[in-house]
Amino acid sequence: MKKIKNIAIIAHVDHGKTTLIDKLLQASEYGKKEKYQEDRIMDSNYLEKERGITILSKHTSLFWKKYKINIVDTPGHADFAGEVERIISMVDSVLLIVDSLEGPMPQTRFVTKKSFSYNLKPIVVINKIDRKNARPNWVLNEIFDLFINLNATEEQLDFPIVYTSATLGTSGTDLKNIKKNMIPLIETIIKHTPTIKKKNNSKLKLQISQIDYDKYLGNLGIGKIQSGTIKQNQNVFIKNNKNKTYKGKINKILHYCGLEKIEIKKAHTGEIILISGIENIKISDTVCEEKNATPIPNLIIDKPTVKIFLSANTSPLVGKEGKYLTSRQILNRLKIEKLKNVSLKINYKNDSNIFCISGRGELHLSILIETMRREGFEMELSRPQIIFKNYKNEIYEPYENLIIDINKKYQGNIMKFIGEKKGNLKNITTSNEKDRIYLEYDISSRALIGFRSEFNNITSGTGIFYSSFKKYDVKKKCKITQRKNGVLISNKTGKALGFSLFSLQERGKLFISHGEQVYEGQIIGIHNRTNDLTVNCLSGKKLTNMRASGNDEAINLIKPINITLEKAFNFINDDELIEITPKKIRLRKKYLKENDRKKMYKKIIS
Questions:
Q1: Which region holds residue 344: left if phi is over 0, alpha if psi is between -120 and 50, else beta?
Q2: Mean pLDDT of all residues in 379-393
Q3: Does residue 76 carry a pLDDT above 80?
């Protein structure tokens, strides 16, 4: 029987987690198989491949001599932190990967803090040592300072260090002696990750940390066996987070071998497995063999900070592009998502067609909506809103740690922009790269809604920013500015014509092109001024029986702005909605008729 090592790989966005797993698998006995030669093999989700980020936690394993190493790949973005929080409970050590140039970033702090809360000892991997201007010694000092700030124990401060280049497939425990393989890293994992010891006569306890689905086996509960042995066809008791106990029977047991799930007859303490046969099993449930057994404490998941309101599509174009149109279909899909997405919260009323969906950030919510859109759903979404808390007659709001990487020439404009959003500058650091600078802020999550598009405009697309949740604090008694520009609104329903659009280009930037179907109340562009303007985009050139004395003026339409879901979230105001269909993302006013909008504005003013 192989000795088991369970590790999770944690890091900030784009510090090389997934590529490092590729190289570890290729170094194992699976490396000779063709499918293991692909890049970012763990990014199985189509959105992950498109965006180049890890969204879902995924499992794999490799065999090395007499050891089996179970590896969990976790997301690096703060919005998917719920995936990290429930996975860390399954492992016995973490590989903390840090870029050799950038050093610890906001998400690095978050995931490290979570691993320390489970008393895990990290193995530090300083990756991308092949980068120009790499500064591994500086990065190492920064990591040590971070650990001290997080109140690490003496044992956690005595962490092993491995230097790697995941792209080149090299690793070593000494910068002067880097091997052209992953063996030094694998040997460090085996040496410093605790080995699970099997206890004689111990009773079965298994906590479900993740839910998967198989079209043949149904719901699969994934978790680590804390004690005891589990067998096929075994009768068990399930204790849920509401202190209710019910009976179940284990149908199949599977474990990970590389990227495959292999069926086994039984599994022992320390193994990460999948079990089938219990259809209503949920995350945090404890599977045990004694009815009176004490359940494992529930997983602690931080609460959502952002919410949106979602409803079925009500635009004049409803049903022309999607398959799933009703509130009931949307509700059923959201219930399925809630089973496995533990940091998502869904509120709804039986007599209402509007659902309140809360998550950890705009990206967390947009990934769900984008997935549903591609599945064929049509929906309408509100502007994201911050979730406030009431405590001792005070209103509290979430604050985030914001780190900005920009060219020095944009520093003045960016500081003015963030100052208007009431951000508090904490630190300024120069970068090793020429003409680059880091700015660190404490800023309200409320101010970050709509931040990305303005930030990209100011920095001409060259700036990078990262943010992560920091704390809840007293709400600032000030108004944070929204979008400055008004919008162009269609006053009729029909097909937009190039002749009208050509004249409207002087008024602002357009979202639509010639021949595109529009409806009354749809937002077709950004106005150059601060007010909204209702326009006619359907009128063509008036024809007469008189011959023109000269040539007609050529109509040259500027390419319209491409609206993505993230851009739409950042753009709309409170009186606007996003219309989502499988083929199109449109923006519209809540009230399509101009008279209805005027009446509503009068009520607000009065």
A1: beta
A2: 88
A3: no
* 284, 305, 308, 309, 446 from 449: Cα distances, Å: 32, 12, 12, 15, 6
What is the rounded CA–CA span in Å between residue 113 and residue 175? 27
Q: Can you give the C-alpha Rg of the chain in angstroms?
A: 27
Amino acid making up residue 462: T
Query: Which of 54-63, 272-281, 308-317 is the most confident on average?
Result: 308-317
- In terms of DSSP H, where are the helices of 394-536? 411-420, 451-458, 498-504
Among 91-95, 302-306, 329-333, the range scoring the smallest mean pLDDT is 302-306
Buried b (16+ CB within 10 A) or exposed e, 566-603: ebbbbbbeeebbbbbbeebbbbbbbebeeeebeeeeee
Residue with tokens 């699970």: 196
> pLDDT tens across 15-36, in order?
778 888 888 888 776 666 666 6
Residue for token pair 């050093």: 103
The answer for residues whose C-beta is within 8 angstroms of residue 113's C-beta and 6 or more apart is 150
CA 374 from centre of chain? 17
Cβ proximity of 322 and 581 under 8 Å: yes
HEC states along 208-255? EEEEEEECCCEEEEEEEEEECCEECCCEEEEECCCCCEEEEECCCEEE
Q: Considering the entire predicted model, what is its pTM?
A: 0.82
